[in-house]
């Protein structure tokens, strides 16, 4: 996945200003594709220059007025082509897993606290995802678009559930040793 495609997706969902996009990334898209505000603004410029988006005309142009962007046909075509591309899963690169491998060699001093900290973080993230699901997807959506958005959220819920289960077992195994 790439930032231009995440921005095109967000703008197709709703034309937005750069500031609105950064807020939406903080609240939703950022859960699975994070980006800084500076990266978003830079990419908006690139997408506009490439003819994939345009700033909507304003009634009375004023200095410092925020631009609201919409996706042009070339942007929609780019996004559709990208959606259809095959892409292999990425290998897991998690520093916690590497720390555990290192602990097998040098000892587990401090590892228990780090595992418990990660467990708490995943529990909080799961609770946040479940709150979003209860707020935004009850009852479950019946349209294709709503179902796909819900599936993305369910993917996050399932990943957090996996990590909570795995960390709980890892802590129990360390405690038993």
From TrEMBL:
SUPFAM superfamilies: Winged helix' DNA-binding domain (SSF46785). Signal peptide: none annotated. Residues 92-175 form the Transcription regulator PadR C-terminal domain. Residues 7-80 form the Transcription regulator PadR N-terminal domain. It holds the Pfam family PadR. Gene3D superfamilies: 6.10.140.190, Winged helix-like DNA-binding domain superfamily/Winged helix DNA-binding domain (1.10.10.10). This is PadR family transcriptional regulator. It comes from Streptomyces badius.
């Amino acid at each position: 996945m790439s930032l231009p495609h995440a921005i095109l997706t967000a703008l197709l969902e709703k034309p937005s200003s750069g500031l609105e996009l950064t807020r939406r990334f903080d609240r939703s898209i950022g859960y699975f594709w994070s980006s800084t505000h500076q990266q978003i603004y830079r990419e908006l410029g690139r997408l506009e220059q490439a003819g994939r988006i345009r700033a909507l005309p304003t009634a009375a142009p004023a200095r410092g007025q925020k631009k609201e962007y919409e996706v042009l046909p070339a942007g929609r075509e780019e996004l559709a082509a990208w959606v259809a591309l095959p892409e292999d899963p990425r290998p897991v690169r998690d520093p916690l897993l590497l720390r555990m491998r290192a602990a097998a060699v040098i000892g587990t001093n401090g590892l228990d606290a780090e595992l418990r900290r990660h467990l708490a973080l995943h529990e909080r993230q799961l609770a946040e995802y479940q709150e979003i699901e209860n707020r935004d997807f009850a009852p479950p959506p019946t349209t294709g678009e709503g179902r796909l958005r819900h599936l993305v959220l369910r993917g996050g819920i399932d990943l957090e559930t996996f990590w909570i289960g795995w960390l709980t077992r890892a802590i129990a195994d360390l405690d038993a040793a």
